[in-house]
Amino acid sequence: MRVGVLTGGGDCPGLNAVIRGAVRKGVQEYAYEFVGYRDGWRGPLENDTVPLGIPAVRGILPRGGTILGSSRTNPLKAENGIRRIKDNLAKAEVDALIVIGGEDTLGVAARLHDEYGVNCVGVPKTIDNDLSATDYTFGFDTAVGIATEAIDRLHTTAESHMRVLVVEVMGRHAGWIALHSGLAGGANVILIPEQRFDVSQVCEWVTSRFRATYAPIVVVAEGAAPQDGDAVLKDGSLDSFGHVRLSGVGEWLANEIERRTGKEARTTVLGHVQRGGTPSAFDRWLATRFGLHAIDAVRDGDFGRMVALKGTDIVRVPIAEATAKLKTVDPELYAEVGVFFG
Asked: What percent of the chain has pLDDT over 70?
C-alpha cells in the first residue's frame, strides 16, 4: 500500500511528530510506502510531492513547523479541484491519504471521502483546541506554555512602570489559550470570544488593581469583542476558506483603557510566537500517538474517520462529526476564574 500525508492550515508544534509516528510504524510494521504532499491541499491539487520514508523523518520529533510545508489552499474552490486531486492520487498510486489539519482542512477531507470516495484518515491539528470530537489537540499545550511564560515576564515590567499590559493571544472563536494561560499566569482580566466584554467593567477591574498598588495584566483572545462592537479585523481580507484576518483587539483595548482610566497601557501581541518553535513534551507524546493510530486506521481500512483523544485513550470518530461544531469555553468554566478579576 502507498500512503500520502499532508499538513494543512496554520502550522503548530507537533506536526512533525505525527508524520514521524505514522511513517515509522507504517514502514516498520506494515511495509507501507509513503509520499509527502507539499503545502497542504496544494500538494495533491498540483501533484507536488516529496519522498517520505524513515530517513526523511529522522530527527524531526523536536522540530516545530512541518517538513511538508502548509497552506490554506481550498481545493473545493479550485477549477476542477476534486477531479485533479483524484487524478493525481491515482497517478502517484496513492491508496490512502492521512490528512493532518484543523476544521477547514479536515472539512475538505470529509467531503472528499463522503462524496467522492477518497480514502482519507484525519488527524486533528489546531492550537486553539477547538475541535469538539477530541479532548485535546497537539500544539495547544505548547501555545499555553509560551503565553504563560510571556505573562510571567510581563508582570515584572508592568510593576516596574505601574502600567497596564494587555496581552493578545490566539483564539478566533474559542478562548482556550486565553483562559488557560491567563489563569496560569495570574492575569487580572481574561477576555474570550465566547463572552462579549464590557469595556467599562474592564476599566473598573483595572482601576481596582491600581488602588491595591498592583499593575494589572489583561489577557485577551484575538476574537474577543466588546458588547457594543465587533471583533477587530486586520484589513478586512478573507482567506480561501472565507475567514477574516483578526488582529488588533489588544491595541484597541489598551487605547480604551488609557483613555478612560488615565493609566498608561501597553500591548503585547504574541501572534505566531505561540505556534513556533519546539513542541512541549505533552504535544510530542500526543502527536506521536495520533500518528501511530492514524496508520492503524489506514491498515484497518477505517476511512472517513479521525483519531481523537478521549481521556487517555485514542479513539476514532467520523471526520464529519469532528468538524460539525467547535468546542468552545463553557460559561460555567469561564465564571470559575472570575474570582481573580479586578
From this structure: 94
Give the closest residue to 178 by CA, choosing from 193, 198, 200: 193
Residue pLDDT, tens place only, 120-157 = 999 999 999 999 899 999 999 999 999 999 999 999 88
- Cβ(203)–Cβ(257) below 8 Å: yes
What is the SS3 assignment for 267?
A: strand
What distance in Å separates the CA atoms of residue 323 and residue 40, rounded to the nearest whole number?
17
CB 168 within 8 A of CB 268: yes
Q: Domain 2-138+279-322: give its CATH code.
A: 3.40.50.450
Please determine whether the domains at 2-138+279-322 and 142-275 fall in the same fold group of CATH.
yes
Contact 280, 145 (CB under 8 A): yes
- Which DSSP helix (H) or strand (E) runs through 303? none
172 is in an annotated binding site: yes
For residue 103, say whether it is annotated as part of any ligand binding site.
yes
Q: What is the DSSP string of 43-108?
A: HHHHT-EEE-SHHHHTT-TT--S-TT------GGGSTTHHHHHHHHHHHTT--EEEEEE-HHHHHH
Q: Where are the domains of the chain?
A: 2-138+279-322, 142-275
Topology adopted by domain 142-275 = Rossmann fold (3.40.50)
Instruction: With 0.70 as the threshold, say if the pTM is over it.
Output: yes
- By residue count, the chain amounts to 342
Per the annotation, does 222 bind a ligand?
yes
What are 174-216's pLDDT values in tens digits? 999 999 999 999 999 999 999 999 999 999 999 998 888 788 9
> Mean pLDDT over all residues of the chain?
91
Judge whether 65 is annotated as a binding position: no
258 is known to lie in a ligand binding site = no
Catalytic residue list: 128
